[in-house]
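Lab notes, practical 5.
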Amino acid sequence: MKKLLIGLIFSGFHTFAQTPRYDSLWKDPAVEKRIADGIEQNRKGDFTLLFPDLKGTAELEIRLVKHDFMFGANIFMLKGFKTEAENRRYEEVFKSLFNLACVPFYWKTLEPEQGKPRFAVNSPAVYRRPPPDVVLDFCEKNGITPKGHTLVWDNTDHAVPTWIPTDTAKIQPLIDARIRELARRYGSKIKTWDVVNEILKDHPHVPMPPEYPLKAFRTAQKYFPADTRLFINEVTTESWQNYHREYTPYKLLIDNLQYRGAKIGGIGLQFHFFSEPLHYSVVAGKAMTPSDLFRNLDIYGRYNLPVHVSEITIPALPAGPEGLENQARLTRNFYRLWFSHPAVEAIIWWNVADGTAVAGEDKWRGGFLDEALKPKPAFDVLDGLINREWKTNLKATVSGKSYFFRGFYGEYVAKITVNGKTTERRFSIHKNQAKAFKVTGL
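Output from the prediction step:
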């Protein structure tokens, strides 16, 4: 029994002993102040409701119904489960948390046979690849903003069709035609696109035309509507770890593309922990620290472009309650920091549920739902932040001609009750826009 007890103590020591250091970094008063101040300054604004016709008193109820800030995930499993009950559960959870959906446009599975793209609702089924028209219908019905991912990616496992020729001179016209077709069909419906993906994770065995990233931007700029935002997206290592101040490779890549005419409209920073050493270094407080994250966001914030934390996988490791708690704790800390930073416009979780990742990635248990689509502690964290802590819900008795409040940016519903009659009005609080709304007809 004594040997067993010693074994248990040492088997749990690796992660348990590291917790105090991790917690001390995130509970540091300076870090907490920067996060709290950033949320207050960057995500909230002052607003006044005006009641010129009000006589006497009114009961007022104010409710934020949609965030300006974008909270999202990939929507690769839409209509993709075996049962209708599972599909409904997935959709309900998605709608309850998110106002952004990352739509799959991977060339390999969108056009598995040349000239026969899977755009339409009745297209042949492919796992984790719902047809774009299916996704856009869901988004439109539920007020969710779609983001296209991705126009060009030199990855043969997921993006490069098997029918692509090996002659690079013949590939470029095919890329141009693909971008042109997507712009024609979806340019008016999807206003944010990842143009290129993971450029710095080169695949030298894949024949790609020279300067294909720059050419992709030029072609997208030519064919997509002028109000389209064209993003660049990069892997976790280059986005957060390979930091060299002004000589950070990802920064130099952006500088180079911009200098040569790429109208980059936003910067994507992936955040996958596809490594046990990385995960346990994070839990130990040795990697992805608050200072690391702020440092990187600050350098990309200098571009005055929207930053998307674009693909998030936070593992639930080790297996069991400890891993679930690790995932939840990391999720809360990371989301609060990202939400606080003025450059960040969107935070995009990757796989909603365990067991739905691409082959080889399910071992990380990176969903916030388990395989049965039941909530994990990380879901409770997200739901608590997005739907409660960062929601403005107020009730007040108004006796004057105005009511002042401070709330999170977004779309609101106000209910004003006077003498038993309730009037409902919708209004919005947006950064750098009008800060008052007049309610008449009371």
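Observations recorded by the TA: The chain has two domains: 21-63+392-438, 70-386. The first helix runs from residue 2 to 16.
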